[in-house]
Amino acid sequence: MTDPLKLASEFPAADYASWRQLAEAGLKGASFDKKLVTRMLDGFAMQPLYTNDDQDDATRLIHQVLCATVDAKDAASGWDIRQLHAHPDPKSVNAAILDDLENGATSVLLRLDAAARAGADVTSGDAGIDGIAIHCLADLDATLDDIYTNLATVAIDASAAAIPAAAILAARLEKDAENSTDADDDFASDAAPAFNIDPIGTLAATGCLPVSADDAIKQAADIAADLIDRFPHATAITVNGAPFYNAGATDGQELACLLAGGVTYMRALTDTGMVIDQAAGAIAFNVAVGTDFFAGIAKLRALRLMWSRVLSASGVDDATITINAVSAEMALSKVDPWVNMLRTTVTSLSAGLGGADSVICLPYDHLIGQPDGFARRIARNTQLILQEESNVHRVIDPAGGSWFIENLTRELASNAWGRFQSLEARGGIIKALADGSLQKEIAEIWQARESRVATRRDPLTGVSEFPNITEAKVTCDTPDLATIRKEAKARQTGFKDVIGNSLEGLITAAKSGATIAQMYEALYGKAAGTTISPLPTHRLSESFETLRDRADDHKASTGKFPQIFLANLGPVAKHTARAMFARNFFEAGGIEAITNNGFADASDTAKAFGESGARIAVICGSDPQYADMAADIAQNLKQAGATRIYLAGHPGDARADYEAAGIDDFIFIGADVLAICETALSHLGVK
User: Fold this and answer.
1) Which of 60, 215, 356, 379 would be a feasible disulfide site paired with 325, CB 3.0-4.6 Å?
2) Rg (CA), the chain
3) In this predicted structure, what is the pLDDT of residue 185?
4) Which pTM does this prediction carry?
């Protein structure tokens, strides 16, 4: 009996050669490589189609290797849904954490304020800025009131003050253990805090360390070893790739930095006497995930693959790796922030499919201010839907077997491994940061990213594409910093005892009321610190947002946006495509387009322009209309007072004739939107 479901049995077997032939015919003479082959920023090319013939022995082993890097139980429970908290008021954060944990989140990341992260006290002007006002154990107690720290992972972000902050968190965990009423409860074995000590990431992001880099790494390793003795399931050291990626680094550059940092910490941890397996388990990797969906999956897979190779070479049998993924701030925008919901959905799904152990989905208004309950709910529900409705976590390495993803993983891992070897050959990541060579390499990539954004080769929805300049702004709550600082000061006990430099001494001092600033002073005193050029923090939308801010300020002072007149030619069917293109083009720079239903001749166009009060015009129509009317339209517009005229469309060989007629510039696909809008704003006197 024949199988009735062999629906393709009457068609010839498909093969790459036949597909390539059809593809090239469809291109009608255009270059296959230029149109269909993707050139990655890391320098390698990705083909539009892969088959089983593109797999080699090494590629076929990737899935097998990656399966060994994941704890099988994670496929049943799913990744950890981690929520970032940075509101300055500990009591407000406590209420938000309880709400998160009751509604689907499984762990929290507490970002300390700028004062605490720098080792300054609560009287500093940075207290309550860019984080929670946690300066002593009482502050942390207020933040974590009624929270079971043995059930929900608590992670901290304390930058240069990571060790004093770790002591405060350890003191809180030990208090919770002492107060536990369950006789069978082994609190220390259940708690899995993330202390996130990372002097390399701190140096890269801030340009400063309180001691020399070598001393900071040694001290971090010593404290980490003691923390793991107290909390066996903790991750004490974190290798943070976000500062590199948010400065503009490629996926390969971020991976190389992650690997170089991980190896540096592994050496330091084993130098303390830790066995290699325990040292490997004490390290977690924090990866920034952008909106390139497939690249995000491949980046996490490549990291797991490369770290497995490092562990194997080090004699570690257990290849399990801990990866915390976070939505890359570089990919988010301040204008039209609602689109951030789509962006963070992509980043969260990429992270989950790539094998992240925990994922931070940033709220859509993260860049604007303190997220409210709605923003936090959307952030955590994004992940809950991915897990509970899509079940994407039920398979170990779900991308395994995709010929495209396997090749992308292989190429990315190979590229990153070469960059990692280069960093090691140059003396390691600290030396590359100190001499500025790493910053220079990343800056060059950022310039390439900016160029792609400016020409809309990499479009940003709501920013460079489909902008809505009249949309109501998203506003966030403004905390009462004066009250928050006053209450934080009142929680301090006036601790004046001597503080020991060991973890035991720091925890003892923390329990007695010592502040982060006091422990920071005890640890570092007047030691000569390290200062380098920090990595900048970039966002793909930042240049467009600068133009939009100028336009918004202009509207606030004059009552209207800077404007440009669309000189639409003929009926709607003739001009609508280029009129819409021109409107989106200039409104991406905050310039409002005055539109209309089109004009039959030059005199009507010039009359309407004069009545509009605009100074700049854009001629919009079809190529045949341009050949017949553009020169006459431009001359009449100039006579009507137009001080600058654009033509929507590529001028081709007619550029000189158009310019002679008075047309100043041209807008078309591939033009530099940023530069043209900047010129237009300046011409309009928008400061």
Assistant:
1) 356
2) 29
3) 59
4) 0.94
